[in-house]
Amino acid sequence: MANDQIDTLYKPFSLGGTELANRIVMAPLTRNRATHGSDAPHALNAEYYAQRASAGLIIAEATQISQQGKGYAWTPGVYSREQIAGWKLVTDAVHAKGGKIYLQLWHVGRFSHPSLQPGGALPVAPSAIQPKDQKTFIENGTFAEVPQPRALDRDELPGIVDDFRKATQNALDAGFDGVEVHAANGYLLDQFLRETSNVRTDDYGGSVENRLRFPLEVVKAVVEVAGPQRTGIRISPVSPAAGAEIGDASAFAPLVVELDRLNLVYVHAIEGVTQGPRDLRGFDFHALRKTFRNAWMVNNGYTREMAIEAIASGYADLVAFGRLFIANPDLVERFKDAEPKLNELDQANMFGGEAKGYTDYPTLTAAGSAH
């Protein structure tokens, strides 16, 4: 492959005024390693992210905006002083290495369990529809079935919007360069967008316009705090990940048009099934991209060669990598080689635990680096 094509990955990029050193993004990756009891990040998390600071941009793992937004044990939050202080350790460590980092803001909606909810309450959702055959990881270290959720009352929705607003300010206070709204993978905002999980009969359900209403209220609230040039969003139009039924993808083209009007700094599109096949199910991601003026970030199953092609062709501006970044903290350096040597992923230590499978992946030695 010609050097000019390879160099495509390493061209700097201005993301709403945040200068990225390259086009290689570390995707948000749940690792279940926050402090037990407080869900606050800690020094080991800071080390993990600092190891990967050569990414043009790091998007830190999905982070609940409130206790109600939590769906899995030991995932971090961004709603308490201790959590904000913990994230400041992370952002300081990344910035000290010259990196840039966004925080992904998360409300899981129905993918939770009463043991994780305030007062042992039922998880909440647009409608009281139980996801099929879903379990979640709870604080006692076991898996528990996700129950039928409680449908949110209309008068509860402004409170959740406000939780997103507060979480955005907390993220900025913790030193993040921006935030990503998590509207993918079957979580709360995705649940509102889909007819299979949203059968409401008020003005938040039914028509596409109504199903867009709550996600757009959230995005607008985040933009009010962070500004559009520090606000991105993640979507997964065809992914049934985490048990979400696909339904139709009718809301996504109108959604992106509205996001363009709001001048969001990027759309982060998961192509195909999250962590699964790149089965686009007839959905035209290229057409979707043409409706959005700002940065277009792509994700899911991308190889080095696919990333170079996506950027060189003008389709994408940034390419996000997930599991490759888990196993290869210096992925940016490794991708300079046409046939990069890549570490094996430690599947047994993906979720929970300490340093093993987290901060112990070897980097290339200076002598072994290939350029």
Please give a structural write-up:
With 371 residues, this protein is α/β, with parallel strands linked by helices. The chain has one domain (3-368): Aldolase class I (TIM Barrel). Helix content is 28%, strand content 16%. It is built from eleven helices and 14 strands. The strands form four sheets. It has an eight-stranded parallel barrel with strand order 3-4-5-10-11-12-13-14, surrounded by five helices. Strands 1-2 form a two-stranded antiparallel ribbon. A two-stranded parallel ribbon has the order 6-9. It is globular, with a radius of gyration of 19 Å.
Strand order of the largest sheet: 3-4-5-10-11-12-13-14
- Biggest β-sheet description: 8 strands, parallel, barrel
CATH topology group: TIM Barrel
Q: What's the order of the H and E elements?
A: HEEEHEHEEEEEHEHHEHEHEHEHH
Can you give the mean pLDDT? 94
Ends: how far apart?
A: 13 Å
Instruction: Tell me the total number of β-strands.
Output: 14
The CATH superfamily is known as Aldolase class I
In the residues, how many domains can be counted? 1
Q: What is the CATH top level name? A: Alpha Beta
Helix coverage percent of residues?
25-40%
State the secondary-structure class.
alpha/beta
The shape is globular
Question: What is the CA-based Rg, rounded?
Answer: 19 Å
